[in-house]
Amino acid sequence: MRPQTGRAAGSRPPLPGVIAAALAAVTLTLAGCDGDQPTNDPTATAEASAPRVVVGAGPTNQTETVAYAWSKALEDAGMTVEVREIEGGRAGYLKAVEDGEIDVFPDYSGDLYLELRGNQPQGAGTVEAQEPTQSPSSTTVPSDEANGSDENIVDTLADMLGSGQEGVTDGDVESGVDEQLPETVQILDAAPAENKRVLATTAATAARLEVTSIDDLAEHCGDLTFGAIKGEDQASVTAAAVADTYECTPGEVREFDSQADVVQALLEGQIDVAGVLSATPAIEDNSLEVLEDNQEALVPERVLPVASADLSDQAVSEINGISGQLDTEALVLLTRMTTSSTPYTPEEAADYWYGTVRP
Question: Where in this protein does the record put region Disordered (predicted)?
C-alpha cells in the first residue's frame, strides 16, 4: 500500500485552487483522447507482426519434449510459437498438419512410415510403454511356427521399400515417408537422434554366451526367452522380425505392459533377451549390452520433423538447425529428465537442454 500523504484533517484548498486543479485534469484527459497523437505499445506491435508457428507435440512424451526444444529456437528467432497437443495419435497429427491446424510436429521415421502404410505396431514409444506397472507380469506369445504365420514387419517393410533381406536404412525409410506424404506436407532434416528398437541382454549373459551381435546370438536363440512390450511381438524386436534375417527363433517370447517391466524381467532373469528402445536410460543405468544389428534388420527410427509445405523458410532453417544438434545422447538425457522419480515437464527439460546448445 502506498503511504498516505496530504493535508491535515479538516483542511481544504482555497476554491480557486480546486477549480484550477479540475481544469488541469480535464485538459490532460482531453489530450489523452486526442486521435492525432495515439500512444503506441511497441511490444504489442512487435507481437502482432511476428510470424506465428503452431508446433504439434507429436505422438509420444519424447516428441513433446522435442517440440518444446524447437519452440525455444523459433521464439529466439522472433516468432510467436504455440505447442499444441492433438488427439488421435500419429494419424491425428498427420491430419492436423495436412489440414493446417498445426505447422510442424516431430515423429519417428520408421513408425511414421508404418503408419502411412497401415502397419503401425502398437505400444512402442508411448508414455505408458515407458512406465512400470504395479506388479509386472508377462504373457507368452505363440511362435510363428505355432500359429502358422510367416509374415513379419521387417519382411513387410523391406518389401514395401523394395529392399532385400539385408533390411532397410535410414535413407530408405525417409525416402519412403516422403513418397507417401501428400504434396501439402514435407519432411525436414532428420535429427541424428535415434530411438529404434534394439535387442539387449545383461553383461553377464553376453559374456556367458560370448555374443556381441544378433548374428552371434542366432545359434543360441532356441534356448532363450525373449521379452518385449505388449503389441511388439510382431514388430522389429522379437522372433518374427529377426527369424528370416538371422535365422533366430527364440524358444519363447513374453510380453510385458511397459518397457520398465521388460528391463526388470531381464535383470531378474525371467527373460534372456529384451526388446527395448535405444534411447531409454535403462540401458546405461543397468550396463545392458545392446546387440549389434549387423544386417540392419531392425527398423530405423530417427527423429523426423513433419511440416506443412507452406512453412516459412526461416522456420524450416531454425528447426533444421536445432534438430541437427539433437543426438541420441541428448534424447537419453531428455527422457531421463521427464521419466525420473521427480520428473521435469517436457517444457522444462527442453528449456534446460536448449540452454546448453543455444547459438
Answer: 122-150
